[in-house]
Hints:
8-stranded mixed sheet; 2 domains; 311 residues; 6-stranded antiparallel sheet
Amino acid sequence: xxxxxxxxxxxxxxxxxxxxxxxxxxxxxxxxxxxxxxxxxxxxxxxxxxxxxxxxxxxxxxxxxxxxxxxxxxxxxxxxxxxxxxxxxxxxxxxxxxxxxxxxxxxxxxxxxxxxxxxxxxxxxxxxxxxxxxxxxxxxxxxxxxxxxxxxxxxxxxxxxxxxxxxxxxxxxxxxxxxxxxxxxxxxxxxxxxxxxxxxxxxxxxxxxxxxxxxxxxxxxxxxxxxxxxxxxxxxxxxxxxxxxxxxxxxxxxxxxxxxxxxxxxxxxxxxxxxxxxxxxxxxxxxxxxxxxxxxxxxxxxxxxxxxxxx
Length: 311
């Protein structure tokens, strides 16, 4: 069983809502610089202009790239005490939010006001006014038991954590830490084109966190998504499922009509990139109480380690 979640807890503590990924990107780069010397293969690190805050790691002669988005959902402070969503956070009265403006660090509480016509307005309550444009995110609250981890932003700091665990053993492959996934997508297509043009990489695995539903359950293993709002190419998908059976990892098949990920950006791009979403299921999605079972995390990492070597 994977036991060391100190890195995950630290990743979750760093703010990085869509459009504001600079701090989390800097942390990941620092982690790579400190640890890459002990990895099986020292990667080429590609970042900076024109990649914005995205990071690409290239190991050996890659065939497949793993995509993990760094950004999270959150809120923008509008005029007076108004809040506007970044991505799709659930809005539950009393949620604790944190941020930093020109005055300093600030904590706030979410207030949901419903008009007579049913329209909901979001506001914050704090000890002082917050600068307009400030980004607020869920207050970190990491919890761990023998069975599960629970925290804000397991979507997708858990995918980032998994990618960093995977990095230590990759011989041939690539990892992309992408941006803006929660608010429309951004750097994914550019990074995919870069890897295709420079390394011939035309296969992708999307390391993200999916939802517990009536068909995808906690403890059922990592979910291989056969479809969501996008459709992975069937030949590629069938190959992944066949390899998953060989891997020894416990997995379950997901079939949904909605939802999306970095895979949607790849499907809509001009590059002929095969992609498949593979991730552990979580409950209490887009809240401060996202929960994922450790056994599903273990099987996610086990399957990725197998696939990166066999695709």
